[in-house]
Every structure is written in C-alpha cells, then in structure tokens.
Specification:
OB fold (Dihydrolipoamide Acetyltransferase, E2P), 20% helix, elongated
Length: 128
C-alpha cells in the first residue's frame, strides 16, 4: 500500500491499518532515523548498516565453539547478527534496539552479519 497523503489520509490509515502494520512502520521510521538502510534491501556481500529491535537471542555451537545469534527486525525484514566465540553480550536481549554494521552474508536465504560493529539504541516510543 502506498504512503498516505495529507492529514486525513494519515488519520484514515491509522484507523484502518492493523497493529502489526503500524508497528512495522514505526520500526522502519526509527531505523531510518538512526541512519540505517531497510533490511529488505540488504544483498549478499553488501557493506551495510542496519537498525532494529531484537526479536530473539540464541546460543549455538559452530565447530565446537559457542556462537551468539541475535535476530533483529526493522519492520521490513530480519538480519541475524552472529558473534563468534560468545555466549552472552550485556545489553543484547529481546526487545532492545540496536544498530549494527558489517558485511551481509546470505546463507540458506538468511541474511547475517558476522562479528558486526554495534551500538545499543534507545527503545523507540510507542506511536500516539
């Protein structure tokens, strides 16, 4: 659906759109405000900066070593941040907002960034 135009169009959109759609739009706006690109546009081997809300944090074993995997969502898509040799990173928990940059790697259709540079962001406020 296109961008609503004018005051009335925005109000009508807020009244008729579903909660998930409005939340996704808020996340996309917060991501853009942080200077990140939409995750839906990330391509294999691109050097990129993404921002979003952490949906899941998982510890897995890769080649016998622990790996922390953090799924972040920006309203347009999901990227997995992979921290090799880590079991925990303070502050990276479900619900937190994070901005990360690095090279995208797509494996089995899942975009990932290995050992990204990252910073925690303030949690975006709920839309009024």
């Amino acid at each position: 659906m296109g961008e609503p135009h004018g005051w009335w169009g925005r109000k009508l959109h807020k009244l008729t759109a579903g909660t998930n759609e409005l939340d996704a739009e808020d996340l996309q706006a917060a991501s853009a405000a942080a200077g990140a690109v939409p995750m839906s546009g990330c391509r294999d081997r691109d050097e990129t900066c993404v921002a979003g809300t952490i949906q899941a944090v998982t510890v897995r074993a890769r080649s016998g070593a622990p790996t922390l995997e953090v799924d972040i969502y920006d309203g347009s898509g999901t990227v997995t941040l992979v921290f090799l040799g880590r079991r925990d990173i303070p502050g990276l928990r479900a619900g937190a907002s994070v901005k990360a940059s690095g090279r995208i790697t797509v494996q089995e259709g899942r975009p990932s960034i290995f050992n990204p540079r990252y910073e925690l962001l303030p949690v975006p406020s709920a839309s009024a």
